[in-house]
Amino acid sequence: MTDTRRRVKVYTLNEDRQWDDRGTGHVSSGYVERLKGTSLLVRAESDAQLLLQKQYLPRTNFNHLYHLKFDTLIVWSEAENYDLALSFQEKAGCDEIWEKICQVQGKDPSVDITQDVVDESEEERFDDMSSPGLELPPCELNRLEDLAELVGSSLPSPLRREKLALAVENEGYIRKLLELFRVCEDLENREGLHHLYEIMKGIFLLNRTALFEVMFSDECIMDVIGCLEFDPTLPQPRRHREFLTKTARFKEVIPISDPELRQKIHQTYRVQYIQDMVLPTPSVFEENMLSTLHSFIFFNKVEIVGMLQDDEKFLTDLFAQLTDEATDDDKRHELVNFLKEFCAFSQTLQPQNRDAFFKTLSNMGILPALEVILGMDDVQVRGAATDIFSYLVEYNPSMVREFVMQESQQNDDVSIYTKDILLINLIIEHMICDTDPELGGAVQLMGLLRTLVDPENMLATANKTEKTEFLSFFYKHCMHVLSAPLLANTTEEKPSKDDFQTSQLLALILELLTFCVEHHTYHIKNYIINKDILRRVLVLTASRHAFLALCALRFMRRIIGLKDEFYNRYIMRNFLFEPVIKAFLNNGSRYNLMNSAIIEMFEYVRVEDVKSLTAHIIENYWKALEDVDYVQTFKGLKLRYEQQRERQDNPKLDSMRSILRNHRFRRDARTLEDEEEMWFNADEDDLEDGEAVVPPSDKMKSEEDLMEPISKFMERKKLKDTEEKEVLGKSSLSGRQNPSFKLSFSGSTKTSLSSPPSSASLNPGSPGSPGSPGSGARSSPSTTTVTTKGGLVGLVDYPDDDDEEEEEEEDGESKEDPLPPSKKSKLSS
């Protein structure tokens, strides 16, 4: 049986900081002759191939530290700047290997990291921060190895790391190290350069701002980068300094007069380069040790933005050159790229500082400048201007909308051509004319347009409503530009151009129009109906690109979902279901998204009972749909239609249902309890299948058929009341009464059911009377006068006691028992 204690999974940490599973195997530890030492071996459980072979090295620097985590995980960092981990199935196996690692490194296995815990505990017990701290070895070539080991051993402990940072800072050690670096480089002392790499990397991980200020000063930063070129894991040193001094060039598009600002820009670029390119990817233990470096770059960027924002001459020159027609294309390209990077830096600002930043740009005329730039032919310049515009829209769409409307008001007297070059129309035209086959720029611009026309971010004040004003402007001056490709491509029964790029563009336009249908009210409604937009859109259901046909269906589905009769009449008047049904039939028996989308549209009409559309569909397209039986949607529509016709042909049916729905539970307090008991105690034989208060909706009933079940219900109620009166009034009554009841559905304040007899009374021969087929001969046809006060309270009311006595005397000789034995037993109990 396999020893599960030694069963492990091997993981490595990739460049994306994700753990990759390298396989499952069994771990062992033993002496390896080739490596001349004790090693860790992992062989795959499937084919026994070697998954991992790691020699236990005495800890000489930070890279040889092992960590024990979660009782079953051992993690360490390799010299090649990637991390490995062993995940054990059982804790016992993990403890066994951990003891062997600690034995080789001479450490205590009771802790979770292979460090000198005895020294640490002694320091924590006897030392405090007021003590002199660590004593650094002399900064000499022959002591570099000792210094590298000291730095590596101090990093795992926060206390030792703090003391090391203080010692390096107080003794001016960084400048001494950089002098040694220059000596080693001149002597080509590779061993010393490798030690300096480890030392300088460790100083970065001390995470101390005071040290960074020294390292990133103008006189030190290039030597610091030089130290980090000599990675001992690489066969040849990198050439970072050569790139920074010869390849990378600082382009000063507008002369910067402030020397402090120039120095800050240079410094930030170089530190960013160190973070991104020079320093190795931090291990899982080191990624939190560079937080101060991130903060250093962040605050530098904030300071640069603030200094540029305060320099009015600089910004004035910038926008003047941007909009100057005499500026050559290369210069303008550099200016736009600078402005783009300037805006990108602003994203690091706090909200209040960002507000001030964009207000400054707005006051300097950034939107008119962008309008000029977007009208140029240079694709790269337009792309950068689009990115700048996106920053403005995402920050404050109201500011952009206000500029566009003011621009329109200023140009009221100008030509139509001038109207078409409004800023928002330029954005639409760039979206339409995007040359990218994947329409990446068009997608970005469509998102910006969607933000601009979204009523959710529009302001409403006491004096004006931004939504009303801007949407009126947009539909008057811009909507025709947006819909132009759609109208141009749908002049016939099929799309004029059906290539992939055109279809993608039309899909983007439809997505924006669908958004308008959902969020705008009368503006989009008037535009769709006046321009016959829906009919044009439905031409696209014939496209060979399924995604475009589905976009067209989605557009119509959103319109139907509004349940607006203006839209419904427009659809019916123009027979706009015809292309949908044609697309459904052309799709055939294929069960795909097209099929489901069309069926869902008709199902919505059925479920929501949109009467006008239901009648239109059945009356015009039923023959094409009647054979579709794999779903019940169309048969359900037919049923809805027949129910509508039934109600139209028999208005009394609707009125009866209304009465029953409105008054069914409005019963007199005296009869409510008895009525419920009668319903629950009625024999199954007495309640036949056909006896329903409301007749089936799919069959046409005459007035007599409608009254029959109600009469039967009243007959049973009458018999029950008769029996109870007999039991309760036995001492004073000498016979049984057989009252007949008259029904009135009038809602008047006083309703008389006695004289004259109305058409609603139950006369002999009518449904429910003793002589009718719907009831048995349970009572004599004598009548009783009943008056209802206060309107229609219930279908039946109790007669007065005097009337009961008179009727009992008249009918005293009748001995017929009106109730079956089951009912008598229930009543007597």
From TrEMBL:
GO terms for molecular function: protein phosphatase activator activity. Residues 798-814 have a biased composition (Acidic residues). Residues 5-105 form the PP4R3 EVH1-like domain. Residues 713-728 have a biased composition (Basic and acidic residues). One of its GO terms (cellular component) is nucleoplasm. One of its GO terms (biological process) is DNA damage response. Residues 147-643 form the Serine/threonine-protein phosphatase 4 regulatory subunit 3-like central domain. Residues 740-766, 775-796 have a biased composition (Low complexity). Residues 684-829 are annotated as: Disordered. Regulatory subunit of serine/threonine-protein phosphatase 4. Belongs to the SMEK family. This is Serine/threonine-protein phosphatase 4 regulatory subunit 3. It comes from Oreochromis niloticus. The lineage of its organism: Eukaryota, Metazoa, Chordata, Craniata, Vertebrata.
